[in-house]
Amino acid sequence: MSITTSKLEAKARSSSGKGPARRTRMEGLIPGVVYGKHLEKPFSIALDGKALRAAIATPKKLNTVIGLMVDGQEHTVMLKDYQMEPMTKELLHADFIAVKENEQVKVKIPLLLVGKAIGVLEGGILSQMRRELEVWALPAAIPLSIEVDVSALKIAAALHINDIKLPAGITVKAHTNFTIAVVTAPEIEKVAEPVAAVPGAAPAAGAAAGAAPAAGAAGAAPAAAGDKKAEAAKAPAKK
To answer: Which residue from 28, 32, 67, 176 could staple onto 4, CB 3.0 to 4.6 Å apart?
Structure first.
């Protein structure tokens, strides 16, 4: 039974380099290369860019196993890398890795968090630290995604790679126990507190308020002095 899920045709290229690659693009094709540890040596190909896009237009996308037909000979490959023109999004180059049914290949699988974390129910915030996981898997056993149950996560708790139960046939060879998800405590909104009254502040304010009358009293003194002068003027002069 074939493990391929897509078919793609290409033709061999006898030369490589910038010049031949440019001529290939002028022909309406894109240059590519096929390599693998069980191949005698890598070989160059030319293929149609639209046909390549159609070949990987599957739920597995870049992890699609392709039956690549080159000059009448079929190779089981996966698209490993590609180059794209930034503005036009036109494919410029494609790298394929030859795979075997009984040999694991390194791929990146999307991580999906499932379940409602206990910490979230308590008001915490769930953050996903890693969106995909690099694993080794047999070509036919590559899953669409890996589901990670976060239901048991409490506030301040984290889930790591070593905590994940992987599907059968999937191996992780990471040396670091990366964090997958964490629940953090909610931020406490600070409410502005009223300024406490300082002992003696009220009298001081009252004194300040009373400054106006004091000023008026001060102005009354000259007026009183003026009244005394007026009375002195009215009094009969002493002989």
So the answer is: 67
Cα–Cα distance measured from residue 75 to residue 70, given in angstroms and rounded to the nearest whole number: 8
Alpha helices in the chain (DSSP H): 18-26, 49-55, 118-121, 201-209, 211-234
DSSP letter assigned to residue 62: G
Give pLDDT tens digits for 120-172. 999 999 999 999 999 999 999 999 999 999 999 999 999 999 998 888 889 99
Concatenating the DSSP letter of every residue in 90-143 gives: -EEEEEEEE--TTS-EEEEEEEEEES--HHHHTT-EEEE--SEEEEEE-GGG--
Task: Enter the tokens of residue 188.
Answer: 């406490």
Work out whether strand 132-137 and strand 105-114 pair parallel, antiparallel, or are unpaired.
antiparallel
Local confidence band at 214 (pLDDT 50, 70, 90 cut-offs): very low
**Statement: the pTM of the whole predicted model exceeds 0.85:** no
Question: In this structure, are residues 79 and 102 in contact, taking their beta carbons and an 8 Å threshold?
Answer: no
Residue 210's pLDDT is what?
47
What is the Cα–Cα distance from 150 to 139, expressed in whole angstroms?
A: 28
